[in-house]
Amino acid sequence: MEHLPWLDWCRQRSLWDQEWNSIVFSDESRFCLGMHDGRARVRRRRGERRNPQFFVERHVHHTVGVMVWDPTFQQDNARPHVARVTIDFFQHNDVILLPWSPRSPDLSPIEHVWDMMGRRLLNLQRPPQTLEALREELVVAWNEIPQEDIDHLIRSMPRRVGECVAHQGASTHY
């Protein structure tokens, strides 16, 4: 089954608690002017994840955006993260990497940080009109996230891993 490596990964870490406090979570996200990034949007009820009938295609023109990277080192297996130059950098600088299973967005707590930042941008009375303004708003959004929210996300890792194991590696509510 497709999710078995992910399930094994969770089982190996099912007893972790304080260990998560020593992990640096990293990821990237794209924020666009006008908030249209050309990705398909999905509207669904709980339990209907990945059901193609709920996909809504959006055809949009090219948009300008900013890619944000945060070192809050877990990293997923996106191509830039596993590129030879990246791996060489980590090895040269003695950075220890937490292995991360492919196709595992359910458990990455940083995804919720991007959501918080995106919601803040959506609630702006005057959305940014230039890349520089977008960058400035992203810095403000990042700085406004309370540390206790970040701590809460990190403390949620044992629950995330436990739910993954309970669901036999299938999707979780995260």
Automatic annotation (TrEMBL):
InterPro entries: RNaseH_sf, Transposase_5. It comes from the Eukaryota. GO terms for molecular function: nucleic acid binding. This is Tc1-like transposase DDE domain-containing protein. It comes from Acanthoscelides obtectus (Bean weevil). The lineage of its organism: Eukaryota, Metazoa, Ecdysozoa, Arthropoda, Hexapoda.
